[in-house]
Specification:
globular; 33 helices; Rossmann fold; 9-stranded mixed beta sheet; alpha/beta; 3 domains; cytoplasm; Alpha-1,4 glucan phosphorylase; 6-stranded parallel beta sheet; 24 strands; binds pyridoxal-5'-phosphate
């Protein structure tokens, strides 16, 4: 596709020098690491632009259907090395940088993470963008260009402290500002009737201005656009007020507008119900839909033909106002008959459900919706009655508007032709528990698309040691066809291969240990089991169960110091939402326990706990390749899919996990004998909760757990404040909604099996290698191919 010759390290070095001089305006003698990183990024970006334009041309020349992925979050992480890998230029870049006398890692690590997301949902959107580009699926991602991404986490006295994140303080070398692509977005106001037709007159408006980033696919064959919207005032400031000397008030419209794209809401799987959040959701959606329709109409296509040319995917209900907004644009603005507008919208839209947690299901008070989006509130009522009319047997309790609230899940369901869950188990639970009635009215609408991860970032880039072994063993090409990892299977009978597999793991563990020694001042034994739980802090993910089991291990070592123990390193990482008290207490407990155990002379290096601050994509790339054991221990029925679980298993970690989310399918793929299963099933969890005393009963049956809770209650880990964890312990005895106590013994004995299994290094190596070899199914390429076939009805343009 591109005629530009592949650069050599020398020609690339010249390009870098050119950019240092002419783009950064620096004499090479005085350039900083930042300048060099920018110059390298710009040199690489130059090579992305051509395939990017070519892809756009081909899309329009061939009249291709376009897929629009709407998401409030894109957790992209760093972009430079990823682009280098996909262009096949990592080695060339590295020699060019080293030829300039610079350290490659120092340059790469100078880039701040783009942290425009909370966790799994945002990271999924980033993996899906990369896979769409790799598969040649013409598409655009639409999101918000938050000035401040997810907060940064620090620890002070073992407690989480949040500080603002400032990724845009520096220039962002991958984005192109598009001042010519700006749309007016309205809020509030009233609805009037003009020529017998409803017409919305907004009371406030802001501008949505586009910033485009190219997303380059594997081998640089295709590139799509991630378009992020930034809010700008429709008028910069109030000149009248300024001329009257009221300088602060003169800047008010600007300040007001900019709050819209100022910050990402830091709540993962909880819904805040705030007016600003609703405005952000509409801001993204309305800007995207105006852009989609403008592009469609500019190509001289009719709105009748919209579903043939346009597929719009809603990443959770956050952009679910897309249904009413598209219907409004088609009928109020473009004059399409109302019911026909609904049907057209339904054919274009798809909705991905990400959670069954009740606290995560968005519902907006009708008065708030009616105030912020008065016309949309009317349209929502009309969609609801249209649906009721078309389904006379719809039960009275089913509907979009209920108890003066707009239920966004129902709205998204009714305005989409396909609704998908993100793992086989999750999809069954959506059918059974979340939308049972709507499922009956619309058989076949709910389908499954199990999540996936991009193997380019999560294996090829993050784990060079293992990647090189795979390339030496089965050649290249598996990065774009991950099922080919199966070709590793015959080699697991070869002890030389297994030695190399474990040597790669050992290298990664040493690198991680060196980083932890430097950043945390804790020395780790690379022969220990590296046991890692990294993910957002949430009660359902049960980091608490992990730390309780760690305490029990420590206690046992102290009681019986002569016994033979398999050394362990417990690594935790993850942020708690700033207002989530219970989660923050769990972080503090882990930190307090670490302080005691890490300084216990009786224990030495047999047990260490580390919790580095500020878990993000870059830290995940550092930790995951070094893991022996992956902790995926959520209460069954609560984790929709998980994607962290996939990253670990692909990198040769064994999973200790419950039958939850995609763990179920991971276990099927890698084989039950290569997976440490424990705990209640989703059905058993429901059953267990019917006993109001389940927590007390489970604790009374486990003397070990009783001892552990007793130690915490006595202040063993918080001697300066013995009552610090009274609430937590009280909750364990009296409520324990997430069944930590009920699963504790099962988890503990599974952990004992891990110790035994790790003792047999040859057998462990086989199990680990089989995990890698059998994880091909979890490539996001497989997931995106499924969306293209089952939801978007489109094909590759490659
Ligand atoms: C993959 C990833 C997640 C999701 O992890 P889960 O274990 O599936 O919750 C969250 N945060 C980051 C930074 C990730 O890379």
């Amino acid at each position: 596709m591109t005629n530009t010759p592949t650069p050599t390290a020398e020609s690339l070095r010249d390009k870098i020098l050119h950019h240092v001089t002419y783009s950064m305006g620096k004499d090479a003698k005085h350039a900083s690491i930042y300048d060099w990183r920018m110059a390298l990024s710009l040199a690489l970006r130059d090579r992305v632009v051509e395939p990017w334009f070519a892809a756009t041309r081909k899309t329009w020349d061939q009249g291709r259907k376009r897929v629009y992925y709407l998401s409030m979050e894109f957790l992209s992480g760093r972009m430079l090395e990823d682009a280098a890998i996909n262009l096949g230029l990592r080695a060339t870049c590295r020699s060019a940088i080293e030829g300039l006398g610079l350290d490659w890692y120092e340059v790469i690590e100078n880039e701040p993470d783009a942290a425009l997301g909370n966790g799994g949902l945002g990271r999924l959107a980033a993996c899906y963008m990369e896979s769409m580009a790799s598969l040649g699926c013409p598409g655009y991602g639409y999101g918000i260009r938050y000035e401040h991404g997810l907060f940064k986490q620090r620890f002070e006295g073992g407690q989480q402290v949040e500080t603002p994140e400032d990724w845009l303080k520096q220039r962002h070398p991958w984005e192109f500002e598009r001042p010519e692509s700006a749309y007016e977005i309205g809020f509030k106001g009233y609805v009037e009737t003009v020529d017998g037709k409803p017409h919305w007159v907004p009371g406030e408006t802001v501008l949505a201005e586009a910033y485009d980033m190219p997303v380059i696919g594997w081998q640089g064959k295709w590139a799509n656009t991630l378009r992020l919207w930034s809010a700008k005032p429709t008028e910069m400031f109030d000149l009248a007020r300024f001329n009257h000397g009221d300088y602060a008030a003169a800047a008010e419209p600007e300040a007001l507008a900019r709050t819209l794209s100022r910050v990402l809401y830091p709540d993962d799987t909880t819904y805040a119900g705030k007016e600003l959040r609703l405005k952000q959701e509409y801001f993204l959606t309305a800007a995207a839909l105006q852009d989609i329709l403008r592009r469609h109409l500019a190509a001289d296509l009719s709105l009748e033909a919209l579903p043939k040319h346009v597929a719009i995917q809603m990443n959770d209900t956050h952009p679910a106002i897309a249904g009413p907004e598209l219907i409004r644009l088609l009928s109020d603005v473009h004059g399409m008959e109302f019911e026909h507008a609904i049907e057209t919208a339904v054919q274009c839209l798809g909705y991905t459900n990400h959670t069954l947690l009740p606290e995560a299901l968005e519902h907006w008070a009708t008065y708030l919706m009616g105030t912020v989006l008065p016309r949309h509130m009317q349209i929502i009522e009309k969609i609801d009655s249209w649906h009721r009319r078309n389904h006379p047997n719809r039960p009275h309790f089913v509907g979009i508007v209920k108890h003066q609230e707009v239920r966004m899940g129902e709205l998204a369901f009714i305005t989409s032709h396909k609704v998908n869950g993100v793992s086989a188990l999750h999809t069954e639970l959506i059918k059974k528990n979340l939308f049972p009635e709507l499922n009956k009215l619309h058989p076949g609408r709910i389908i499954n698309q199990t999540n996936g991860i991009t193997p380019r970032r999560w294996l090829r880039m993050a784990n060079p040691a293992l990647s090189h072994l795979i390339i030496d063993t089965i050649g290249e090409g598996w990065e774009g066809d991950l099922d080919r990892l199966r070709e590793l299977e015959p080699h697991i009978e070869d002890s030389a291969f297994l030695d190399k597999f474990m040597a790669a793991k050992r290298t990664n563990k040493e690198h991680l240990a060196a980083w932890i020694a430097q950043s945390e001042g804790i020395t780790l034994n690379p022969d220990a089991i590296f046991d890692i739980q990294v993910k957002r802090l949430h009660e359902y993910k049960r980091q608490l169960m992990n730390i309780l089991q760690t305490i029990s291990e420590w206690h046992e070592m102290r009681e019986n110091p002569q016994a033979d123990y398999q050394p362990r390193v417990k690594i935790f990482g993850g942020k708690a939402a700033p207002g989530y008290y219970a989660a923050k207490q769990i972080i503090r407990l882990i930190k307090d326990v670490a302080e005691v155990i890490n300084n216990d002379p009786l224990i030495g290096d047999r047990l260490k706990i580390v919790y580095p601050a500020n878990y993000n994509v870059s830290m995940a790339e550092r930790l995951i390749p070094a893991a022996d054991l992956s902790e995926q221990i959520s209460t069954a029925g609560k984790e929709a899919s998980g994607t962290g679980n996939m990253k670990f298993a692909l990198n040769g970690a064994l999973t200790i996990g419950t039958l939850d989310g995609a763990n179920v399918e991971i276990r099927e793929q890698v084989g039950a004998e290569n997976f440490f299963l424990f705990g209640l099933t989703a059905d058993e969890v429901m059953e267990r909760r019917r006993d109001p005393e389940h927590a007390r009963h489970a604790i009374l049956e486990s003397p070990v757990l009783q001892d552990v809770l007793q130690m915490i209650a006595e202040g063993r880990f918080s001697p300066d404040e013995p009552e610090r964890y009274h609430d937590l312990v009280h909750n364990m005895w009296n409520s324990d909604y997430f069944l930590v106590a009920s699963d504790f013994e099962s988890y503990r004995s599974s952990q004992k099996e891990v110790d035994v299994a790790f003792g047999d290094r040859a057998s462990w190596a086989k199990m680990a290698a089989l995990n890698t070899a059998r994880m091909g199914f979890f490539s996001s390429d497989r997931a995106i191919a499924g969306y293209m076939r089952d939801i978007w009805d489109t094909t590759s343009a490659l």
